[in-house]
Design goal:
The chain is mainly β. The chain has 3 helices and 30 strands. The N terminus and C terminus are likely disordered.
C-alpha cells in the first residue's frame, strides 16, 4: 500500500513543501488505496451520546482485500477546538442524512460537512444556539446571524492526504435549523455544499457555492420546491464537469425524490441555475411524479416486486457516462402515491437518452420494509471504482447501511458487479466488512486521498534518492480519483 511513500511525502508536507494553510491541524497520513468511513457519535471511544446530541466526527481507515474483507488501519477525530482560522466541528449523532464523505476531483482531499461548535459546549446548553430555547437537537440549531441566539455555522472540513484538517470555511445563513448534507470540491479551493433549511418559505436550503475560508455562500438552486417550501438536496458532486445532486423531499406541493443536474452540462454554475427551479430531473429517473416508479420482478430488491414505490436516493456513483449506481435508503420522505421504497444499490443505464433501472442489488443486506419498526431498509453512503479483472471490467462498490431508527446498528458493505450487466447476476452478494461500534453510526464512505506528486523538474534529484522504495504508478478512476499501485 506504499505506506512508506506517503510517510515521506507527509514529512515533506510538514516541512512546508505542500503546506495547505498555516492553521491546518495535522494528523497521521492516509494510505493510498485504503477506504475511509465517517463516523458520528462515539467513534473515538471518548464519551457517550444520545440521539440528536452533538458528537465528534471520526474517520475510520480500512485496508482492502477486494470487496470481501477489510483490515482496520486506524482513526482520526476531527478537531473539537478552534485553532487559528479553524473552528471546532461536530455532527448530530442519530441524524439520518448527515456525514456524507467525498473524495475531491483531484483525489487529494476528503470533504465532510458538520457544525461549527464543540460538542460538549452545545450539549451543555443547546437552547442557547437557536430560536427555540427548549430545543435539544444539534440539527435544529440556528445558523442565521443578527439573531438573539448564538448562531452555529455549517462547516466544511477539508482533509488532506497527510491528515491535515482545514475547517476555516464556516458558513452562516445556510441550512438554518436543519442538517448540512454533503460537500464536494474539485481542488480544495471552492466547494458546493448541500442541505435543507427551515420548513416553510426559506432561502437557506438547497445547493450553494462557496470558497475556502468563506463565511457565506451563494445559492445555486434558488428558493424552489413548490410555492417556496423548503427543499432537501443531499449528495452533491461533479461528474464530467457537470453538477449533480440527489433530492428526497416531502415538503410542499412539488414532492420530489430523484437525481438531477444544476446548470449546463460541462459548466458547473456559481450562481442561481435552472431559472431558480431547482435540479432538473435526469430523464427517465422515475416518472413525472418525480420518483414514483413501478418495480418489476427483474428490478426488485426482494421486497417490492409489482409495487409502485417512491425512490429515496442518497449517495451515487457514475461508473461511466452511461452507468449510474445509487444508494437508496428504502425509506422515502415522499410517500405520495407509493407503497414504500426500493432500498439497496440500484443500477441504472442510459439507453437512448433516458435512464433505465436495470436491477437493485440487495442480497446480504437483510433488508426490511420501511414500514418495519427497526432494521436496515437500504443504503446511505457509496463509493466505487472500475477495475479490469481477466480482461473484464468490474465495479468494486462500497456502501454504508441506512437504519430505520436513528441510533440503530449500521454497517459497511462491499460488493463487486459486472460493469456490462443489465440484468441481475445471480451470484452477487454484499459482504459485511465492518460494523459501527456501540454508540456510533457509520455514515459516508470514500477512498483515501493521496498527496500531490512533486514536479519532476523540482524534485527529480530528490526522488532519485528513493531507490529503495520502488516505482510508483497510478491509475485514475472516475471523478479524478487517483489510486496508487506498486509496479
Amino acid at each position: 500500500m506504499l505506506k512508506s511513500n506517503l510517510t515521506l511525502l507527509a514529512t515533506l508536507v510538514a516541512a512546508g513543501a505542500f503546506a495547505q494553510s498555516a492553521s491546518a491541524q495535522t494528523f497521521s497520513s492516509f494510505t493510498a488505496g485504503d477506504l475511509v468511513v465517517s463516523v458520528e457519535g462515539d467513534g473515538s471511544n471518548t464519551g457517550s451520546y444520545s440521539d440528536n446530541q452533538a458528537a465528534p466526527l471520526t474517520l475510520y481507515e480500512y485496508g482492502l482485500n477486494g470487496t470481501s474483507s477489510t483490515t482496520f488501519a486506524g482513526s482520526m477525530t476531527l478537531p473539537q477546538t478552534a485553532s487559528g482560522n479553524n473552528v471546532a466541528i461536530s455532527g448530530e449523532y442519530g441524524s439520518s442524512s448527515e456525514g456524507t464523505l467525498q473524495l475531491s476531483g483531484n483525489g487529494q482531499y476528503l470533504t465532510i460537512m458538520g457544525y461549527g461548535v464543540n460538542a460538549n459546549a452545545f450539549n451543555a446548553n443547546p437552547g442557547a444556539y437557536g430560536p427555540d430555547s427548549s430545543n435539544k437537537a444539534l440539527g435544529q440549531s440556528g445558523s442565521l446571524t443578527g439573531q438573539s441566539y448564538t448562531p452555529v455555522s455549517r462547516v466544511v472540513a477539508l482533509i488532506g492526504a497527510n491528515g491535515s484538517v482545514d475547517t476555516s470555511t464556516a458558513l452562516y445563513n445556510v441550512f438554518d435549523q436543519n442538517n448540512p448534507r454533503s460537500v464536494y470540491t474539485t481542488d480544495g479551493k471552492s466547494f458546493y455544499v448541500s442541505g435543507q433549511g427551515n420548513a416553510g418559505s426559506d432561502s437557506t436550503s438547497g445547493v450553494f457555492y462557496t470558497t475556502l475560508g468563506s463565511k457565506s455562500a451563494t445559492s445555486i438552486t434558488g428558493n424552489d420546491a413548490g410555492g417556496g417550501t423548503s427543499q432537501d438536496t443531499r449528495d452533491v458532486q461533479i461528474y464530467n464537469n457537470t453538477l449533480y445532486t440527489s433530492v428526497d423531499s416531502k415538503g410542499g406541493s412539488n414532492n420530489r425524490d430523484f437525481i438531477g443536474t444544476l446548470g449546463n452540462a460541462g459548466s458547473p454554475p456559481t450562481s442561481v441555475a435552472n431559472g431558480s427551479n431547482g435540479p432538473a430531473q435526469l430523464p427517465g429517473f422515475g416518472t413525472n411524479n418525480a420518483g414514483l416508479i413501478t418495480i418489476t420482478s427483474a428490478t426488485s430488491n426482494g421486497l417490492n416486486s409489482g409495487q409502485k414505490v417512491n425512490l429515496s436516493p442518497e449517495s451515487f456513483f457514475f461508473a461511466n457516462s452511461t452507468t449510474l449506481y445509487v444508494a437508496d435508503s428504502g425509506d422515502p420522505k415522499n410517500t405520495k402515491g407509493g407503497n414504500g421504497g426500493d432500498g439497496g444499490l440500484q443500477k441504472w443505464s442510459l439507453v437512448n437518452g433516458s435512464w433505465v433501472l436495470d436491477y437493485t442489488l440487495a442480497n446480504g443486506l437483510h433488508l426490511v420494509s420501511s414500514s418495519a419498526s427497526s432494521g436496515t431498509s437500504g443504503l446511505y453512503g457509496l463509493t466505487g471504482e472500475v477495475v479490469t479483472v481477466n480482461g473484464q471490467q468490474e465495479v468494486e462498490l462500497f456502501a454504508t447501511s441506512f437504519s430505520l431508527t436513528d441510533t440503530g446498528q449500521t454497517y459497511l458493505y462491499g460488493i463487486t458487479d459486472s460493469l456490462s450487466a443489465t440484468s441481475l447476476p445471480g451470484d452477487e452478494t454484499f459482504d459485511e466488512l465492518a460494523a459501527a461500534p456501540a454508540d456510533s453510526d457509520f455514515k459516508g464512505v470514500a477512498f483515501a486521498p493521496v498527496a500531490a506528486v512533486p514536479e519532476l523538474s523540482t524534485w527529480g534529484m530528490l526522488l532519485l534518492g528513493f531507490a529503495g522504495i520502488g516505482l510508483v504508478s497510478y491509475r485514475r478512476t472516475r471523478r479524478g480519483e487517483v489510486r496508487f499501485s506498486q509496479a
